[in-house]
Design a protein that fits this description.
The chain is about 10% helix and about 35% strand. The protein has 6 helices and 23 strands. Strands 3, 5, 6, 11, 13, 15, 18, 19, 20, 21 and 23 form an 11-stranded mixed beta sheet that branches. The longest helix is centred in the first third of the chain and has 13 residues.
């Protein structure tokens, strides 16, 4: 039997009746979304891995494709080795390297680069040791939220790196000696699609060897002559920094404030209370005779050697994973080298951040020899 639609007057009456009873004849899209969110939150006691995961797990590695046990790549002097090339959409979730090289400075001589979505210029460019927080070219065991170095020189990175169309990574040997064995495992996820608001991972290397010591004005409200860790244009958020310092004179290398310029290149929006405080230590890290290395989830100074003495070494890191510093147009992350930049030590740093489009306007990478830490005594 065919049932005709109710007349307009009856439909109007039914809508009024349902409305009086707290009902609606059509569920708005917002209500459906709220219901879906409520259903999801209803089970938020379950960890992510206890629910269906909507991706495929893959790996690209240096495995021996003949089936043998030579699971590594040699990299000759001057050679660039492609270590990752994958069409998207996808997400790199973990990077592991270990290296056997003839050159004692290979952590400074090997350059890691990453290219997102077929860009010809990299959005990650740093000496491989600096990228992994070993900014002075020496290995040290430590663990943090995003970077770690394990016994027997295994390097690990847990920054998530999404890409839409393609991702490439290369390692260039800029040293004079061969790398006999470069072992690589890069874990990634293949996904059907990525959300519209993904941001791309970036890492920028900078150095100042030596920093120019300011022996005049002891006031520095606007960050003049600060060491620049990174500078970028676009929209995104800062994740943190690693820093290596080689002392060119006796004394404490800290007391320099962190100054972060957000969407304004003339005045810092964020100003801290000293570099040891920025790296979440305190009181000279313990001073000339009491300094103790430390490494925690979001902060650390895993290398402290000969503190406050000429030739002394510090490696530090700070992650902003609890509160990434957001920017909509511009970001410059800086640190004073000593109070009002009164120290002339050698600084080597990497800044890590995400932004909405791949950014490639990096300063030129310094020549390889200038990246090797060497004491430079004041004249």
């Amino acid at each position: 039997m065919h049932i005709s639609s109710p007349p307009a007057a009856r439909r109007s009456f039914l809508r009024r009746l349902l409305a009086l009873g707290g009902f609606s004849t059509a569920a708005p899209a917002a209500s459906l979304a709220q219901n879906q969110t409520a259903r999801t939150q209803q089970f938020d006691y379950l960890p992510r891995y206890a629910r269906t995961l909507h991706y495929q797990s893959w790996k690209q590695s240096s495995f021996d494709q003949t089936g043998g046990n030579s699971d590594r790549w040699p990299i000759k002097p001057g050679e660039t080795r492609e270590i990752y090339n994958q069409a998207g959409p996808g997400v790199i979730s973990h990077i592991w390297f270990t290296i056997a090289a003839a050159g004692r400075n290979h952590l400074k001589e090997l350059v890691l680069r990453a290219y997102w979505d077929d860009n010809s210029k990299p959005s990650v460019e740093a000496p491989i040791g600096d990228f992994f927080g070993l900014n002075l070219g020496q290995y040290e065991i430590y663990e943090s939220a995003y970077l770690a170095c394990s016994p027997l020189r295994s390097l690990n990175c847990y920054f998530s790196m999404p890409y839409r169309r393609r991702a490439r990574m290369t390692v260039e040997n800029q040293g004079a000696d061969p790398v006999n064995s470069f072992y690589s495992n890069i874990d990634f996820m293949r996904v059907a699609a990525l959300p519209d608001d993904i941001v791309y991972f970036h890492a920028q290397y900078r150095q100042c060897t030596p920093c120019v010591a300011n022996k005049g004005d002891k006031l520095n409200p606007l960050g003049a002559q600060n060491h620049v860790i990174l500078e970028t244009k676009g929209r995104g958020h800062l994740m943190g920094a690693t820093l290596g310092v080689l002392l060119n004179a006796d004394g404490w290398m800290g007391e320099g404030d962190d100054m972060i310029f957000v969407d304004n290149d003339t005045k810092p929006a964020i100003v801290g209370t000293g570099s040891e405080d920025y790296f979440l230590g305190s009181w000279n890290f313990g001073g000339r005779d009491g300094a103790i290395p430390f490494a925690h989830k979001y902060y650390g100074a895993p290398i402290i050697v000969m503190p406050e003495r000429t030739g002394g070494r510090y490696c530090c890191y700070r992650w902003h994973g609890d509160n990434p510093v957001t920017f909509t147009r511009y970001l410059k992350h800086t640190l004073e080298h000593g109070h009002a930049n009164d120290r002339g030590d050698n600084w080597f740093s990497v800044g890590y951040w995400y932004q909405d489009a791949p950014y490639t306007d990096f300063p030129p990478l310094p020549p390889v020899q200038s990246r090797i830490p060497e004491v430079k005594l004041p004249s």
